[in-house]
Amino acid sequence: MQRGKCADSENVSAEESEGERFERRERSCARLMRKPRRRSEPKLIKPYTPQGMRAYLALAIAGFRRYATYRQATLAAAVTNTVFGFLRCAILFAVVDAGTGIVAGYDAPRLATFVWVGQGLIGVVLIWAPTDFADRIRTGDVVTDLLRPVDPIWQQLAVDLGRAAHAVFTRFVAPIAVGALFYPLHAPERPATYVLFVAALVMATLVCFGCRFLVNAAAYWLMDARGPQVAWTITSGFLGGLYFPLWFFPDAAAVALMLATPFPSIIQLPLDVLVERGSLGEQLAMLLVQASWVVMILALCRLVQRRGEIKLVVQGG
Predict the structure, then answer these.
(1) In DSSP terms, which residues pair with 106 in a beta bridge?
(2) In the chain, % of residues over pLDDT 70
(3) Alpha-carbon distances of 47 from 42, 54, 150, rounded to whole Å
(4) pLDDT tens digits, residue range 25-39?
């Protein structure tokens, strides 16, 4: 009898312990359903830390070396830009010859400088860029980028700055050297202009990178960014001052474009700084406009990237 009572008490305690464990599991499941567990994310390397500086410098050097391997493509691009420089000079010089010799504040040497330096800027800022990022979003390979301990925006920016540094020594110098052989170019009269132009060139590269990133990031929602890319190619050249100076428009329209759109900060404003169209104060105002667009474009890139990561849908998975 005592053994039977002991066995019954052991069964009751076992049943109670099973019930308690079951209740604990239910409470745990309920808590998990109320508060979902956050997705584990890699710890990103900050660009302002010594480790981050070394990492992003290595990415910039890799971007330089990557484009340095395509010698034939670089030569073909430089030749193409040079040929179109002659065509643009012929058209714009016809406009000058038909007038009083100065059109919208540009005389012949300033206009020639505008054309030939503009042809060199095409390769530095890279208006017509490849669609690598959009293709990685479409195929789902961008997931690999998101798992790396580097920010995808800073990663692409570092690589793009390395590419731009390579373009300065190749695609930028070649058209200017050829243009100087056939046309009188404007030499800046103020020494500060050279420093201001370098700053304007860097900010133009940053603005163009941000615009290209946004165009490619449209693939997060469209899965095919060819439409935005075509629109970007047409709009950036026409409203950026690549085909003709924006000051050929009425002054109010030109100023509105420079303040309301980022396109003039890519081509028009750096060239106006170089040809000294205006006083030193006006040059500084142009740099201020560029700096404002740099901040706004990069902030918008950050917002779009965060939204895109939420929207991301990998095809086939």
Answers:
(1) 103
(2) 83
(3) 15, 9, 9
(4) 656 555 544 544 444
Confidence (pTM): 0.81
Q: Which amino acid is at 6?
A: C
Give the whole-number percent of the chain exceeding pLDDT 90. 43
Domain extent, residue 61, equals: 51-311
Rounded to 5°, the CA angle 142-299-160 comes to 55
Our count of domains for the chain comes to: 1
Integer Rg of the chain from CA: 29
Position 293 in a domain:
yes
Question: Which residues 6+ apart lie within 8 Å of 164 measured at CB?
Answer: 124, 125, 126, 205
Domain assignment present for 212: yes
Q: Taking every pair of C-alpha atoms in the chain, what is the biggest distance, in angstroms?
A: 124
Distance from C-alpha of 200 to C-alpha of 111, rounded to nearest angstrom:
19
277: left (phi over 0), alpha (psi -120 to 50) or beta: beta
Helix, coil or strand: residue 316:
coil
pLDDT tens track for 216-248: 999 888 877 888 888 998 898 889 988 889 998
Residue 316 lies in a domain: no
In a domain, 283, yes or no: yes
Alpha helices by DSSP H, 150-279: 152-167, 173-182, 192-217, 219-222, 226-239, 251-260, 268-274
Q: What angle do CA 73, 78, 80 make, to 5 degrees?
A: 95
Average pLDDT over residues 171-192: 91
Helices 108-121 and 173-182: crossing angle in degrees, nearest 10, is 160
